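Q: Structure tokens for this one, please.
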Amino acid sequence: MLAWFTVILVCQLIGESIVTALHLPFPGPVLGMVALFGVLVAKRGVPGDLARVGDTLLANLSLLFVPAGVGVMAHFVLLKNDWAPLGAAIIGSTVITVAVTALAMAWLSRMTSGGKGDGEASGGGEGA
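A: Here is the predicted structure, written as tokens:
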């Protein structure tokens, strides 16, 4: 398990290093996830030990939000001064995320059903 946890951290380090070196405008861990995805595609699957490490991290995910919560409370005065633009950004990004997810789901649904309508893809419509 420790070896796969190290692989996850190395992928994150690779992502951070590339983003820092090339001054890219997105988070290094995102590029690290792409690198890890590439490793998993090359291995043609997720090894069992890596799955266990991922499950353990997901089970304890709430602990990773504690530092962020402390940071929010430490800078509460700044948040109080800029509540309107922050609120608009949060609500706007949530609406955009839901819309993009819905469009992607509709597109993927059409792609996987082979262009058939919902009734045809589910096999319904005829009496029993």
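A few notes: Residues 49 and 64 are 21 Å apart (CA to CA). The chain is about 75% helix and 0% strand.
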